[in-house]
Amino acid sequence: MLNMKIGESVKEYFARTLSVVNKLRVNKGKMDDVAVIEKILRSMIAKYDYVVCSIEESNDLDALTIGELQSSLLVHEQCLKAHVVEEHTLKVTFGESFGEKGRGRGGF
């Protein structure tokens, strides 16, 4: 139920997840941050798999805060978005440079 949805931003996912966590904490008492962090890492979509592995390997999850995790994932999300924009720009530039301008004019 709390899995990240395809197309959902890290910010949206954290807002939704932390809303549920806060409701659970009010109703059931203390829920430690480590359990929340582990749940978040387990429920990220596949494109974040390498980031999740990196975070798990390079950080002590007992010392990591939810805010630090969110910041790290936001940085990676921005890098992914920048990479997609750069890739799109290269495709457009490559297509214009290598003959796509002539399509539709009776060529091949």
What features would you describe in this structure?
The chain is an all-alpha fold and 108 residues long. It has a domain of 64 residues. The protein is built from 4 helices and no strands. The model has no long low-confidence stretch (mean pLDDT 82).
Topology:
Layout (H helix, E strand, L loop, with lengths): L9 H19 L4 H10 L6 H10 L7 H32 L11
Key structural traits:
single chain; 108 residues; mainly alpha; elongated
**What does the main sheet amount to?**
none
Overall 3D form: elongated
Sequence stretches where pLDDT stays below 50 over 5 or more residues: none
Q: Report how far apart the termini are.
A: 51 Å
Describe this structure in a few short sentences.
66% of the residues lie in helices and 0% in strands. With 108 residues, the protein is an all-alpha fold.
